[in-house]
Amino acid sequence: MDNTGCGRVAKPSKVRKILGYTPEVREVRQAEDEVNRMSSRLLDAMGISGIPSDLPAAAGPCDAVDPDFTTYYTVDHPWALWEADADDFDTAMENLRSRLPGLGWRITKDGPQHSMFRNPEIKAVHISSGHHVAIRALKKRSGDLKPQISVTLVSPCYKAPEGSDPSRA
User: Fold this and answer.
1) pLDDT in tens, 109-152
2) CA nearest 113: which of 140, 80, 147?
3) Does the domain at residues 12-168 carry the CATH identifier 3.30.465?
């Protein structure tokens, strides 16, 4: 890391080595919009009714190469499907198993979570874009927590265009 100045950013020659790919230069808003669209397609692929949380995707630091969030960034979109009938969760997960490959996703995990309740979990990577998603059908939860389907969608690292600050987008 280059520890001069206020930011600790890996030198460009090291970024590819650390990440295993060269981050695409992309405007933050464009990357956030793409993740929001992908989340919408995932919701549609579930094929059940419910109310999705209303939090948009947001840029954050690409910790591996730029923990100070000055040049490189990722876009995260954690959201949940609420007020869905827990009896429909198996249908949603089965729909995802069958529909994700047709939407360009490769399923990397399909099985119970490593937790007390062993709720179903699907993890996948989008083949062409490198986005990752973890989808959990939380039928059983501790205390008074209501059932939900939890989704965490994360982009690969991007590089902000020259002269822009991804933390201020």
Assistant:
1) 999 988 777 899 999 999 999 999 999 999 877 677 888 999 99
2) 140
3) no
